[in-house]
Amino acid sequence: MFAKVQTKRKFSWSGWWLLILVFLAALSLYFAGRAFAQSFPLKFTVLSVALWPEFDQPETLVIYRAQLDADTPLPVELSFRIPGHIDSMYAVAYEQNESLMNIDPASITISKDGDDSLLTFSSPSLKIQFEYYDSAILTKQDQTRTLNYHFSTLYPIDTVTFEVKQPAQAEGFQLTPEADNTFIGNDGSRYSSVQVTDMTADETYSLSASYQGSGVDVLLPDIANPPLGQSESLTLLSDSIGNDNINYLGYTLIGLGLLLFVGAGGYWWFKQTKTDINPQSSLPRKYKRQPASRKKKQTIRRKADVQPAVTIPVKQAISQSVSFCYRCGVALREDSNFCHNCGAERR
Prior knowledge:
The chain is an alpha+beta fold. It has four helices and 15 strands. It has a domain at 40-246: Immunoglobulin-like (Sandwich), CATH 2.60.40.
């Protein structure tokens, strides 16, 4: 009369395989994006190298400011060739919303590459800036100072500007090759610069400067060792460079993979917990039909409860047998031939 009720909750390998495939697909998309970003031919549109001898220390402060090509996928891993004796950086930053942000020092590596070192870090922006102090490029003999700087690039660059800041008390300053431009900066110092265009990967460039005197002893204490983002050395690249064209490809792929993973998990859970639609599912349990074999067992068990099987010896069973009068139904005595109630003859 009623249909059979059955709830399905069984293990299925298909759901697990679907989850695994989606997870592997997400990983593949992520690493494919990373591989594409790293295989993309990197190029700098603008790079400037500022040399500030005896600025706030007897050494020379070297400042790199760079702008990547607008089509560069982000984040991007960059490497720069620096002198081999440099083992630490003063600052490494990227530009975000017209502000300089420190890059995590744990993600910055300096590794040996022959006589030079390679500075490597990842940037989420097209604009980067880093600084270090170099004690070897400036030599001193009495009051004579001689600066020798050698530059080598790992990437092609459209325009490179080399800029030397003259110390406050410097006299007889000379730059080789001859400066393309000499100007007074906002800080009142004199700057001399040389510009080079269309540099190719692994191309090198050298310049030198000489002057008399020192500028360190005229520095005020409150501007020595300025923090990142507050010193003149961390001036942002010119606004004419343009805004960053942030590439969100990697983040999009990761988000898509997570959505697929969650969707596949929900589908698997639904398949594992679904119940067959059946009109008997809402009936009380006592009205639900049981399997035939189970009903038979329950019937036998009930009869056994009412009339339990007891083994009685044959002789005892005969002696305990009782006869009844066929006329009045009274139990007859064991040794009587007539009913003691109605007198009917015993059969």
